[in-house]
Design brief:
Elements: H1 2-10, H2 28-32, H3 40-53, H4 59-70, H5 75-80, H6 82-108
Helix pairs in contact: 1-3, 1-6, 3-4
């Protein structure tokens, strides 16, 4: 799931900061619980920020990102929640379909 979130966030080049100036965000120690290396909490936080700010994404996915960033939701639970995982997989499907369409268009020329 971490890889999927990173892929979603990679579509955007800007990485926003906290949701608003007064917002509290979870600490890296919380994110370390699911990290495989010391850099993953930073990448996950950036990915979640990007997802939370991207209005073109599914509202369920944006809600999940905001909940995790604020500490209202647990990262592991969010990744196992069918409401959120369906939104992630739907977006991944859209990305794959768009890539396939581009490949097909290149070969048709």
């Amino acid at each position: 799931m971490f890889t999927e979130l990173t892929a979603l966030a990679a579509e955007r080049k800007d990485v926003p900061g906290p949701m608003m100036t007064g917002d509290q965000e979870i600490q890296d120690e919380v994110l370390l619980g699911i990290a495989h290396d010391p850099e993953q909490p930073l990448r996950l936080r950036r990915s979640l920020r990007t997802i939370a700010h991207t209005t073109s994404l599914d509202p369920n996915l944006r809600d999940m990102a905001r909940a995790v960033l604020s500490g209202r939701g647990d990262v592991k639970d969010a990744f196992q929640n069918p409401r959120y995982t369906e939104a992630v997989y739907q977006r991944i499907y859209e990305i794959h379909r768009a890539a396939d369409d581009q490949t097909y268009a290149r070969h048709a020329d």
